[in-house]
Protein backbone atom coordinates (compact mmCIF):
# COMPACT_ATOMS: atom_id res chain seq x y z
CA UNK A 1 0.00 0.00 0.00
CA UNK A 2 1.28 3.49 -0.86
CA UNK A 3 1.52 5.92 2.04
CA UNK A 4 -0.72 8.98 2.04
CA UNK A 5 2.15 11.52 1.98
CA UNK A 6 0.10 14.53 0.87
CA UNK A 7 -2.82 14.13 3.27
CA UNK A 8 -5.27 14.72 0.45
CA UNK A 9 -6.90 11.30 0.26
CA UNK A 10 -10.17 11.32 2.25
CA UNK A 11 -10.20 8.54 4.86
CA UNK A 12 -13.35 6.55 5.62
CA UNK A 13 -15.30 7.37 8.79
CA UNK A 14 -14.31 5.22 11.76
CA UNK A 15 -15.67 6.49 15.08
CA UNK A 16 -16.71 9.67 16.90
CA UNK A 17 -14.02 11.70 18.73
CA UNK A 18 -14.93 13.86 21.70
CA UNK A 19 -13.40 17.36 21.48
CA UNK A 20 -15.16 18.71 24.59
CA UNK A 21 -18.40 17.86 26.41
CA UNK A 22 -21.13 17.98 23.73
CA UNK A 23 -18.63 18.59 20.88
CA UNK A 24 -18.09 15.54 18.70
CA UNK A 25 -15.86 15.22 15.62
CA UNK A 26 -16.86 12.65 12.98
CA UNK A 27 -13.82 12.60 10.70
CA UNK A 28 -14.73 11.51 7.17
CA UNK A 29 -18.42 11.03 7.96
CA UNK A 30 -19.55 12.91 4.81
CA UNK A 31 -16.91 11.39 2.53
CA UNK A 32 -19.23 8.72 1.14
CA UNK A 33 -21.88 11.24 0.06
CA UNK A 34 -19.66 14.15 -1.03
CA UNK A 35 -20.70 14.04 -4.70
CA UNK A 36 -24.41 14.31 -3.84
CA UNK A 37 -23.71 17.14 -1.38
CA UNK A 38 -21.67 19.10 -3.93
CA UNK A 39 -24.34 18.69 -6.59
CA UNK A 40 -26.96 19.97 -4.14
CA UNK A 41 -24.73 22.92 -3.14
CA UNK A 42 -24.43 23.87 -6.82
CA UNK A 43 -28.24 23.82 -7.19
CA UNK A 44 -28.80 25.93 -4.09
CA UNK A 45 -26.26 28.60 -5.00
CA UNK A 46 -27.58 28.78 -8.57
CA UNK A 47 -30.92 29.92 -7.07
CA UNK A 48 -29.52 31.88 -4.10
CA UNK A 49 -26.03 33.09 -5.06
CA UNK A 50 -23.18 33.28 -2.57
CA UNK A 51 -22.64 36.84 -1.37
CA UNK A 52 -20.36 38.76 0.99
CA UNK A 53 -22.55 40.08 3.80
CA UNK A 54 -21.86 43.27 5.73
CA UNK A 55 -21.66 43.10 9.53
CA UNK A 56 -23.51 45.51 11.82
CA UNK A 57 -20.10 47.12 12.40
CA UNK A 58 -19.77 47.86 8.67
CA UNK A 59 -17.18 45.24 7.72
CA UNK A 60 -17.66 43.12 4.60
CA UNK A 61 -17.18 39.45 5.49
CA UNK A 62 -14.38 37.59 3.67
CA UNK A 63 -16.53 34.44 3.71
CA UNK A 64 -19.29 34.34 1.05
CA UNK A 65 -22.64 32.96 2.24
CA UNK A 66 -25.99 31.60 1.14
CA UNK A 67 -28.70 29.45 2.75
CA UNK A 68 -31.27 26.77 2.16
CA UNK A 69 -34.16 25.56 4.28
CA UNK A 70 -37.13 27.39 5.79
CA UNK A 71 -34.87 30.01 7.39
CA UNK A 72 -31.59 31.61 6.37
CA UNK A 73 -29.02 33.58 8.36
CA UNK A 74 -28.20 37.05 7.12
CA UNK A 75 -26.34 40.11 8.29
CA UNK A 76 -26.56 43.77 7.38
CA UNK A 77 -25.83 47.16 8.93
CA UNK A 78 -29.02 46.70 10.96
CA UNK A 79 -27.98 43.40 12.60
CA UNK A 80 -27.85 39.61 12.33
CA UNK A 81 -31.10 37.73 11.81
CA UNK A 82 -32.87 34.75 10.30
CA UNK A 83 -35.24 35.44 7.41
CA UNK A 84 -37.62 33.20 5.44
CA UNK A 85 -36.74 34.92 2.18
CA UNK A 86 -33.48 35.77 0.43
CA UNK A 87 -33.04 39.54 0.73
CA UNK A 88 -31.37 39.56 -2.73
CA UNK A 89 -34.35 38.06 -4.57
CA UNK A 90 -37.28 38.42 -2.19
CA UNK A 91 -37.96 34.71 -2.82
CA UNK A 92 -38.01 31.96 -0.18
CA UNK A 93 -34.60 30.36 0.39
CA UNK A 94 -34.19 27.17 -1.70
CA UNK A 95 -35.57 24.10 0.08
CA UNK A 96 -33.20 21.95 2.13
CA UNK A 97 -31.98 19.17 -0.21
CA UNK A 98 -32.90 15.67 0.99
CA UNK A 99 -29.24 14.61 1.12
CA UNK A 100 -28.49 17.57 3.45
CA UNK A 101 -31.31 16.77 5.89
CA UNK A 102 -30.41 13.08 5.85
CA UNK A 103 -26.72 13.65 6.55
CA UNK A 104 -27.43 16.14 9.36
CA UNK A 105 -29.89 13.74 11.02
CA UNK A 106 -27.47 10.80 10.82
CA UNK A 107 -24.48 12.82 12.05
CA UNK A 108 -26.35 14.24 15.04
CA UNK A 109 -27.57 10.75 15.99
CA UNK A 110 -24.02 9.38 15.70
CA UNK A 111 -22.97 12.09 18.18
CA UNK A 112 -25.82 11.22 20.56
CA UNK A 113 -28.40 13.86 19.55
CA UNK A 114 -31.51 12.11 18.27
CA UNK A 115 -34.25 13.51 15.98
CA UNK A 116 -32.22 16.48 14.71
CA UNK A 117 -34.39 18.22 12.10
CA UNK A 118 -32.75 21.55 11.24
CA UNK A 119 -34.81 24.30 9.59
CA UNK A 120 -31.75 26.27 8.46
CA UNK A 121 -28.56 25.47 6.55
CA UNK A 122 -25.96 28.21 6.13
CA UNK A 123 -23.50 27.66 3.28
CA UNK A 124 -20.10 29.30 3.83
CA UNK A 125 -17.60 29.57 0.97
CA UNK A 126 -13.94 30.32 1.87
CA UNK A 127 -11.32 31.24 -0.70
CA UNK A 128 -7.66 31.48 0.32
CA UNK A 129 -7.27 34.27 2.90
CA UNK A 130 -10.93 34.16 4.02
CA UNK A 131 -11.46 33.82 7.75
CA UNK A 132 -14.13 33.92 10.42
CA UNK A 133 -13.24 35.70 13.64
CA UNK A 134 -14.07 34.24 17.04
CA UNK A 135 -17.82 34.40 17.75
CA UNK A 136 -20.75 32.59 19.36
CA UNK A 137 -23.79 31.29 17.46
CA UNK A 138 -26.67 32.62 19.51
CA UNK A 139 -29.18 33.98 16.98
CA UNK A 140 -31.18 30.71 17.20
CA UNK A 141 -34.20 30.53 19.49
CA UNK A 142 -33.66 26.83 20.33
CA UNK A 143 -30.24 26.56 21.98
CA UNK A 144 -31.03 23.03 23.22
CA UNK A 145 -30.55 21.68 19.67
CA UNK A 146 -26.98 21.05 18.47
CA UNK A 147 -25.35 22.54 15.37
CA UNK A 148 -23.97 20.16 12.74
CA UNK A 149 -21.18 21.38 10.46
CA UNK A 150 -19.83 19.71 7.31
CA UNK A 151 -16.47 20.60 5.73
CA UNK A 152 -15.85 20.19 1.99
CA UNK A 153 -12.88 21.19 -0.18
CA UNK A 154 -9.67 22.76 1.09
CA UNK A 155 -8.61 22.06 4.68
CA UNK A 156 -9.13 24.73 7.36
CA UNK A 157 -7.83 25.36 10.85
CA UNK A 158 -10.85 25.55 13.11
CA UNK A 159 -10.50 27.47 16.38
CA UNK A 160 -12.54 26.07 19.24
CA UNK A 161 -12.60 28.18 22.38
CA UNK A 162 -14.53 28.14 25.61
CA UNK A 163 -17.66 29.91 26.75
CA UNK A 164 -15.65 33.10 27.42
CA UNK A 165 -14.11 35.04 24.53
CA UNK A 166 -10.80 35.12 26.38
CA UNK A 167 -10.52 31.29 26.69
CA UNK A 168 -7.56 30.23 24.53
CA UNK A 169 -8.89 28.25 21.54
CA UNK A 170 -7.81 24.72 20.61
CA UNK A 171 -6.98 24.28 16.90
CA UNK A 172 -8.40 21.44 14.82
CA UNK A 173 -7.65 20.78 11.18
CA UNK A 174 -10.91 20.10 9.33
CA UNK A 175 -10.65 18.41 5.94
CA UNK A 176 -13.01 17.40 3.12
CA UNK A 177 -15.68 15.09 4.50
CA UNK A 178 -15.28 15.94 8.18
CA UNK A 179 -18.45 16.54 10.19
CA UNK A 180 -18.66 18.11 13.64
CA UNK A 181 -21.59 18.25 16.05
CA UNK A 182 -21.78 21.00 18.69
CA UNK A 183 -24.36 20.63 21.41
CA UNK A 184 -24.93 20.60 25.13
CA UNK A 185 -22.26 22.52 27.04
CA UNK A 186 -20.40 23.34 23.76
CA UNK A 187 -23.35 24.95 22.03
CA UNK A 188 -22.36 28.47 23.09
CA UNK A 189 -18.59 28.00 22.79
CA UNK A 190 -16.61 30.71 20.99
CA UNK A 191 -15.27 29.48 17.66
CA UNK A 192 -13.78 30.71 14.41
CA UNK A 193 -11.76 29.78 11.33
CA UNK A 194 -8.13 30.84 10.71
CA UNK A 195 -7.33 32.44 7.32
CA UNK A 196 -7.64 29.73 4.67
CA UNK A 197 -4.28 28.64 3.26
CA UNK A 198 -3.63 28.57 -0.49
CA UNK A 199 -4.27 25.19 -2.06
CA UNK A 200 -6.01 23.30 -4.79
CA UNK A 201 -8.57 20.67 -3.86
CA UNK A 202 -9.09 17.87 -6.42
CA UNK A 203 -12.89 18.34 -6.36
CA UNK A 204 -13.42 21.97 -5.38
CA UNK A 205 -10.31 23.82 -6.54
CA UNK A 206 -9.31 26.91 -4.52
CA UNK A 207 -12.15 26.85 -2.03
CA UNK A 208 -13.62 25.40 1.11
CA UNK A 209 -17.36 24.98 1.56
CA UNK A 210 -18.85 24.60 5.03
CA UNK A 211 -22.47 23.62 5.66
CA UNK A 212 -23.88 24.58 9.06
CA UNK A 213 -27.20 23.03 10.08
CA UNK A 214 -29.26 24.67 12.80
CA UNK A 215 -32.66 24.71 14.46
CA UNK A 216 -33.24 28.45 14.18
CA UNK A 217 -36.99 28.87 14.75
C1 LIG B 1 -18.92 25.47 17.84
N1 LIG B 1 -18.87 28.44 10.63
O1 LIG B 1 -21.19 29.67 10.23
S1 LIG B 1 -18.48 25.45 11.52
C2 LIG B 1 -20.72 29.75 11.38
O2 LIG B 1 -16.30 26.52 9.26
C3 LIG B 1 -19.42 29.10 11.64
O3 LIG B 1 -17.66 27.94 8.38
C4 LIG B 1 -17.55 27.88 10.71
O4 LIG B 1 -18.91 29.22 12.71
C5 LIG B 1 -17.14 27.40 9.35
O5 LIG B 1 -21.29 30.30 12.34
C6 LIG B 1 -17.43 26.82 11.73
C7 LIG B 1 -18.26 24.74 13.09
C8 LIG B 1 -19.10 25.30 14.20
C9 LIG B 1 -20.34 25.82 13.97
C10 LIG B 1 -21.11 26.23 15.03
C11 LIG B 1 -20.64 26.12 16.33
C12 LIG B 1 -18.63 25.19 15.47
C13 LIG B 1 -19.38 25.60 16.54
C14 LIG B 1 -21.42 26.50 17.44
C15 LIG B 1 -20.94 26.34 18.72
C16 LIG B 1 -19.68 25.84 18.92
FE1 LIG C 1 -20.37 29.99 14.11
UniProtKB/TrEMBL annotation:
This is DNA oxidative demethylase AlkB. PROSITE patterns: FE2OG_OXY. Residues 117-217 form the Fe2OG dioxygenase domain. Keywords: Dioxygenase, Iron, Metal-binding, Oxidoreductase. It is an enzyme of class 1 (oxidoreductase). GO terms for molecular function: broad specificity oxidative DNA demethylase activity. Its cofactor is Fe(2+). It holds the Pfam family 2OG-FeII_Oxy_2. Its EC number is 1.14.11.33.
Amino acid sequence: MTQNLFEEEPLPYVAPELMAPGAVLLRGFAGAVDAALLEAVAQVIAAAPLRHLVTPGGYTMTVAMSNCGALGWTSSRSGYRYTSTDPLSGQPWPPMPGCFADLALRAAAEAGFNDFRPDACLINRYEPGARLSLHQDRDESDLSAPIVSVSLGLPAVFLFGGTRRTDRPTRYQLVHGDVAVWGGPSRLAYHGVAPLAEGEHPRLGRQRINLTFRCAA
